[in-house]
Write a structure and sequence with these properties.
4-stranded antiparallel beta sheet, about 270 residues, N-terminal domain of MutM-like DNA repair proteins, single chain, Helicase, Ruva Protein, domain 3, alpha+beta, globular
Length: about 270
């Protein structure tokens, strides 16, 4: 499932491609991927300019000229492609936003969705999300306050969207590795220095992953050289049985609360 770096990468690239462009039409091939009748969706997005694209947690928000917002959550298996009829992927497309020469195709939205909301409705929909870990105001002091009284495992706490917004299976493991902490440790057993290490790991891993384009397998457009570039930089995620690049020990895998978890017992403590 795409996480903060993947969606931030999409936001930046799509801003270059479609910001200030007008949606000429919308094709809905799977009604369950939207939240209103097809006709209503088409009427509200037709001839609407995309004013801006925003990311919140694992969501993208496409702000339209008429005040409506398209709220995207790709969930498991969802991805996007921007191009034309000739170069689009030979895959099942659930929603297509047509911009003239090119379209934005939403693919694999079996669990994901593209919902049409007012600003008030979006605020309500996202009201349970925790703070953005890369927000300029998310200071070490703010993180220390956030961790007070937390008792869950590091793994399950980091992926809790009510605790922090945007972190999932992949980057929770990478953050724990960067902080040299086992993901099975509990939050209330971390000492002050370990909390500091965890904070700095969050603020290091997520922007680095974003810079390398996240881990999505499919390019966003033809000749997209950025999307998916982080795979070679991951230290532990999906590297079971490989040697740790930091200490040489074997990277292990286990399930933590039914979630995949990769770590190194040689240098994570």
């Amino acid at each position: 499932m795409p996480e903060l770096p993947e969606m931030e990468n999409y936001k930046k690239l799509l801003t270059e491609k479609i910001a200030e462009k007008t949606i000429m039409n919308a094709m809905i091939k799977r009604e369950k991927s939207i939240n209103v009748p097809i006709k209503t969706f088409q009427q509200q997005v037709h001839s609407q300019k995309i004013i801006s694209i925003e990311r919140r947690a694992k969501h993208l928000l496409f702000h339209l000229e008429n005040g409506y917002i398209l709220l995207l959550h790709l969930m498991l298996g969802g991805w996007m492609y921007y191009g034309n009829e000739e170069d689009k992927p030979d895959r099942s497309i659930q929603v297509e936003l047509y911009f003239g020469d090119n379209s934005l195709y939403f693919i694999g939205l079996r669990l994901g969705y593209l919902h049409l909301f007012t600003k008030k409705e979006v605020d309500s929909e996202l009201s349970d999300l925790g703070p953005e870990p890369l927000d300029i105001n998310f200071s070490l002091n703010a993180f220390q306050d956030l961790t007070k009284g937390k008792k869950g495992k590091l793994k399950t706490t980091l992926v809790d969207q009510k605790f922090l917004a945007g972190i999932g299976n992949c980057y929770s493991d990478e953050i724990c590795f960067e902080a040299q902490l086992l993901p099975t440790r509990t939050m209330n057993n971390l000492n002050d220095q370990e909390v500091v290490q965890l904070y700095h790991a969050i603020r290091s891993v997520l922007p680095t992953a974003t810079e390398h384009g996240g881990y999505m397998e499919n390019p966003l457009f033809t000749n997209d050289q950025k999307t998916g570039g982080v795979s070679n930089f991951l230290k532990v995620y999906d590297r079971e049985g490989e040697s740790c690049k930091r200490c040489g020990a074997t990277i292990l895998f286990k399930e933590v609360s039914s979630r995949k978890c990769f770590y190194c017992t040689g240098c994570q403590h």
